[in-house]
Amino acid sequence: MEEKSVSEIVELASAFYGSAVLFAALEKGVFAAVEKAGTCEEIAEATHCSPRGMRLLLDACVAEGLLAKSGGCYSNTQAGRIALVPGGPADLSQAIKYNQDVYPAWGRLARLAETGRPVEAPSLHLGDDPDRTRRFALAMRGRAMAIGRAVVPMVDLPKGGGRLLDLAGGPGTYAELLVKANPGWTAVTVDVPAVSAVAAECISAADLADRVECRAGDYHSDEYENESYDAVTIFGALHQESPAQIADILKRAACALKPGGRIFVLDMMTDETRTSPKFSALFAVNMALTADNGWVFSDVELKGWMREAGFDSSDTRAVPPPMPHWLVSGTKRA
Questions:
Q1: pLDDT in tens, 131-164
Q2: Residue pLDDT, tens place only, 258-312
Q3: Euclidean distance between the first and final Cα of the chain, in Å?
Q4: What is the CATH architecture assignment of 6-90?
Q5: For residues 284 and 295, is the Cβ–Cβ distance under 8 A?
Q6: Which of 160, 196, 198, 303 would bridge 313 by S-S if both were Cys, CB 3.0 to 4.6 A apart?
Q7: Domain 109-332 has what CATH class?
């Protein structure tokens, strides 16, 4: 890992400026407004902001490379139009709002270092705070939509149909994308009641209620129909579990699978040093700030737990950018 210079240390100390600019611009609908208006005054009027305050925010967006400016007019960058305008081809606007929700927790990182415990109640985004839970679920949907376009072709489900069990499936996005891409497949997606309710809304809106069941449950303790599924997915969930919990979840998933059935685990992972990739190492801190057992494990550790659970695991495959996720798959031993 390359060491930082003195000037880079100074830049790091103020790196949160850029995050705050992005969060504020999304919160005020700047990128959507810029698609329809070009001058500061027009954008301020469209977003119900003061011209002075909006000018400062717009110029900061330009400085951060989030917007372009020519004369007195502002425009979205190519990447911004794709990822920051709601409804864009790789819309991350909802996903980034999750980062905004956990932004205050990062200011209490020293407290985590002292106690080793989360600095906010994990239940805030899993049911206790309905508004935050809904934002969390929709943020996960936005993230999954962006990642799913790359990862779904990597999930090699058998042709001709089958039954999929999607554990900790969030708003049901991956189940939705997988059944759309695989004719003849149906899915059961499981999550806590408050999140499962959002999933049911999303699945209904996608007109897939006949192929995707949204089941309220808890993958920490649920028992599933024995040898009833052809595939299991656990996408972006195990980084909030302890090693013992992960091993137990995988064992119960194995019981649900038919012999020869496939499991696919998608997650942020590190190498064996726990320091690379950089984003994954930092995401481990993010998870520890908001979850009792939050961290990021290595793919080597995951493959060990899979073997213990009764799977023969395959190679680790990196998911294409922008999100540094890895996909590990395995086959249930007969």
A1: 777 777 777 787 788 788 889 999 999 999 999 9
A2: 999 999 999 999 888 989 889 999 999 999 998 999 999 999 999 999 999 999 9
A3: 43
A4: Orthogonal Bundle (1.10)
A5: yes
A6: 303
A7: alpha beta
